[in-house]
Fold this sequence. Notes:
mainly alpha; 0% strand; single chain; elongated
Amino acid sequence: MFKVLLVVLFLAAVISLFSGLFFILKDQGQSGRTVKALSLRVLFCVLLLLALAYGILSGNLTPNNPWPV
């Protein structure tokens, strides 16, 4: 379930990034929708990093190293 949350946050960040691109091309800098979309992207990326840190620190996520540690 935790990995699903990570995928959802990642997809939300990518969708917000492309919606910001769409607003830049459509509005040509005349509205604040681009700023809102890119602010949401930053929020989703921060949440994704926090979720990754929590997952690693709590043991929900473990690194799979191909070399011995």
